[in-house]
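Input.
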Amino acid sequence: MTKLEDCLIFLIGKAQQQAYQTSKALLQPYGITPVQSALLLLLFEVDGQHSSELGERIRLDSATMTGLLDRLMKQGLIERRSSEKDRRINHIYLTDRGKELQTTLEHKIIEINEAILRHFSDEEAEQLKKMLIKIGLKK
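Output.
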């Protein structure tokens, strides 16, 4: 009989729940969810990306991306601009309010990472990151 502790989907799920709750609690004072923070981080890297590119990077379908973008627009953190070459394509830009969050949000992400990895050595943390990339980001 297989023990629960041998079930990877259970263990990964529990780790994800814990990480999500930690990040949700630390981001809550700013009114931002963990998924919203991921999108903002991408825009801090390169502002004005296509909404479809952003969706691909954070692995969200177009319907989910639309809702996410709508909520960030409602908060006044981003704006959509139609492409001059193709009006069907939207570019997503940070507003001044969104740009003001960059330093704070980047520090919060470091704090979240430290909270999640507090029981790991630096070497273990790096190995975990590599394994999570293999599981979650490789096609």
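The radius of gyration is 17 Å.
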